[in-house]
């Protein structure tokens, strides 16, 4: 069933499920039913999602402050939840440029929040599917905003678990990037809490959203051909935690995090 905006409201979408669990307002009954079912299988899902968001913030700050990257491509943006990536990186370098990509039409309706750039910088929004990198890297929105001859920070946060051939997709994404670019990702695993998270993934799959859990070795392999940045592939709560932050148990998360540098 599609509403007036052409959005299929009868099937859950990962961006809207994520929004509902984080306390947002942009979702439909199918998204809420799916989210409640997932939380029933693994009650710590909301905690893990909040940690995932915080991990993205740390990755964005590191890419901007430590790597000096000023161009960013955020694939699988989701419904805006402040602070967004451009707010993180433009606080460090106001002239930073960010292109957001998502395939949920509802994200487009919120694009104005994503386009609130600093005067020195620039943000653009592209409605596209991450599984078709050619359409992303060949789009006018990207080519008018980012200079692909210079390093780009690509963030793929909590998205690759919905892609069967994640390794092939990563190869395509990084093929268009200049040396010095970085790929930052988080993706789901059943390594840490296998029973609950495996059940959750099965429930998501049963609702028409296939979810692929990956081992640590499989996530490490996604960075083949890149220089894996310290601390490597780790439970996302362990990826460069803020100094003095209270420790987070590994069992509160269901994702690995890692950053690879294109050489």
Automatic annotation (TrEMBL):
<dbReference type="InterPro" id="IPR029063">
    <property type="entry name" value="SAM-dependent_MTases_sf"/>
</dbReference>
<dbReference type="GO" id="GO:0008168">
    <property type="term" value="F:methyltransferase activity"/>
</dbReference>
<dbReference type="InterPro" id="IPR006764">
    <property type="entry name" value="SAM_dep_MeTrfase_SAV2177_type"/>
</dbReference>
<dbReference type="GO" id="GO:0032259">
    <property type="term" value="P:methylation"/>
</dbReference>
<keyword id="KW-0808">Transferase</keyword>
<keyword id="KW-0489">Methyltransferase</keyword>
<protein>
    <submittedName>
        <fullName>SAM-dependent methyltransferase</fullName>
    </submittedName>
</protein>
<dbReference type="Pfam" id="PF04672">
    <property type="entry name" value="Methyltransf_19"/>
</dbReference>
């Amino acid at each position: 069933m599609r509403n007036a905006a052409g959005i299929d409201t009868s099937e859950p979408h990962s961006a809207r499920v994520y929004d509902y669990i984080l306390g947002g307002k942009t979702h439909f009954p199918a998204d809420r039913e799916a989210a409640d079912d997932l939380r029933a299988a693994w009650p710590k899902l909301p905690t893990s999602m909040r940690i995932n968001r915080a991990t993205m913030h740390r990755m964005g700050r590191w890419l901007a402050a430590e790597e000096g990257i000023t161009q960013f491509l955020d694939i699988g943006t989701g419904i805006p939840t402040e602070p967004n990536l451009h707010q993180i990186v433009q606080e460090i370098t106001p002239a930073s440029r960010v292109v957001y990509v998502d395939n949920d039409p509802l994200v487009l309706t919120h694009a104005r929040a994503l386009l609130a750039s600093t005067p020195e910088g620039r943000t653009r929004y592209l409605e596209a599917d991450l599984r078709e990198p050619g359409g992303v890297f060949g789009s006018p929105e990207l080519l008018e905003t980012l200079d692909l001859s210079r390093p780009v920070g690509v963030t793929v946060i909590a998205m690759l678990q919905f892609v069967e051939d994640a390794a092939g997709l990563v190869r395509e994404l990084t093929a268009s990037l200049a040396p010095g670019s970085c790929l930052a990702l988080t993706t789901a695993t059943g390594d840490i809490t296998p029973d609950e998270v495996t059940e959750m993934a099965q429930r998501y799959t049963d609702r028409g959203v296939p979810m692929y859990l990956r081992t640590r070795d499989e996530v490490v392999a996604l960075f083949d051909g890149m220089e894996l940045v310290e601390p490597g592939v780790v439970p996302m709560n362990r990826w460069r935690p803020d100094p003095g932050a209270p420790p987070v148990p590994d069992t509160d998360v269901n994702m690995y995090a890692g950053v690879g540098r294109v050489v």
